[in-house]
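Why predict the complex rather than its parts? Because the way molecules touch one another can change local conformation, and only a joint prediction can capture that. The input here totals 513 residues.
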Amino acid sequence: MIRLERVNKSFGHLHVLRDVSLEVQKGEVVCIIGPSGAGKSTLLRCINHLEGIDNGTIYIDDTPVYRFTHEGKMVVDPDHRVESLRSQVGMVFQSFNLFPHLTALENIMIAPLHVRREPREEVRERALALLVKVGLSDKVHAYPHELSGGQQQRVAIARALAMQPKAMLFDEVTSALDPELIGEVLRVMRRLASEGMTMVIVTHEMGFARDVADRVIFMADGVVVEEGSPQEMFSAPRNDRTKQFLQSILERNAELGDSPIVPSGPLAT
Amino acid sequence: MSGIFALFNFRGATEYLPDLLRGAWISVELTLSVMALSLVFGLVVALARMTRVRPVRVVATVYVEVIRGTPALLQLFYIYFVLPAFGIRLPPFEAGMIGLTINYAAYLSEVYRAGIQAVAKGQLEAAQALGMSRTLTMRLVILPQAIRIVVPPLGNYFISLFKDTALASIITVKELLFTGQIIAATNFQYFTIFTIIGIIYLALSYPGSLAVQYLERRMKIGYRPRGAGPGHDSTRGTPQGAVS
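Output of the joint prediction:
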């Protein structure tokens, strides 16, 4: 479904992604964890071409996209190909980024209406169904500023789903939320995962990652340090960096009295 | 005080008030037409300055810099006195309208540009992530938000344009100030005439600025760009709240 081959990305002198290769199967839920500055968000943004890559190739459904090497030469796709690709991969941001001048319903309808030019009635029905799905059927005509952070984020998820994407990317979607609002967003994501959506999730919610992921990837300093099943990663990490990172999270959670928002209780057992 | 009132010729005032009001009407017409044209042309210039097509960007940038770097009076002179040498002869009102439009569009384009750039980057990314093209993003996401941001500064330019139409008197547009000058030149009642002119300008521009304030409040209803809504988490996710 999504495949990265030796992807490199630098911001000036900062080498953010170093030869990252990665494959996500259809229907798979992959959680990416790691310390800040590891390149997790950049990786997601590169998949959606919000950031260009320096070299390497990214495939969506076996089609190379945006920038790729063909017979040793770098090829850059025209805008419309990038746009059509983006519309197939949904993305949810840490800061929601809902359109503040549009209601919840309009936020969800805008892309199918104007990008795909689908009939209004169809789009409207689908949008209403999505609002029910994310538990906001009573907020159809609310503007973003009238919604809590958790509600805004759920609308943002519905907005991305309205394009009927093949895969969804989640970039620290609960990091800007008050603790009591995190659960409602994670519930929606959990449900999506159980419905078989292909998902790549950058998160700091370890309990959530352990429960929902088919595979967990630990990144640090722009490289994939270790990957494996949640059981392997959380109970028996092999790499020292991974151990160190999980240990520091464990200590933080202990300090906080093991916050109740981590759904499955203590982190490592 | 009585001296001042003695200077003010009330009887004379009623005599040439109709002429002055006709002049004021020309000023209003000039203001409305220049504003309407500059609002459209200014937006075109602002977009031209942000396009990826380099020659277009360069032309638009040079235009703005030249206009902002030279006096408006000179620009009016140029259109009214220099263009005829190239066979372009314009009546005073049209020359004034075009001259002021060229001038104001340059300034308004900068206002638009600032407004467009003030829309948070996250909005652009969200639109892109949904597969919107640059044009769609601009039309559906960026401009509707930018317009709300630029209404107050545009309103101020509108008021100041009304007063700047007096510049057109220099190329014999029979607007309020020029009409007054003509009358004063014949009867020397400078105090009376220029006082009346001042009052007319004020009487027209003050309601204008009230209207701008009203519009400003209207724009905020149902939409507050930053830090709005209940609870302390709501400052996030709004345009300025990008946390990353």
